[in-house]
Amino acid sequence: MAVGLYENATGLLNAFAWQNGTYVVAPLPAGSSSRATAVNDSGDVAGWYVDTANNEYGFVWNPTTNQVIKVKGPKGSKFLTVTGINNTGAQITGSYNISTGETIGFIGTCSGTGCF
Length: 116
Known about the structure:
Strand 6 and strand 7 form a beta hairpin. The chain contains no helices and eleven strands. By secondary structure, it is an all-beta fold.
């Protein structure tokens, strides 16, 4: 499987997965701009998106089931990115910025409907 992003006709970036000749776009909120940055051996995809209100979230997505788990950073954080996912899909890595402008790296644990 390969994952990545493409720019659509309106200029938004869209996360996608490509597996065995099938191209699937991540089912994220309409109007959001997204990036798929990592995939594990089970086919779980990690990435991040920016919604129409300019809020940033990470996501974990399974293209087979089309299930998406939204990843929110701590209150007041900005520029959250999810850049890695382990092979069980239970842990993700990434970073976010805090109000002082510092970048904080994280390892988050996912279960069912949420991460962290």
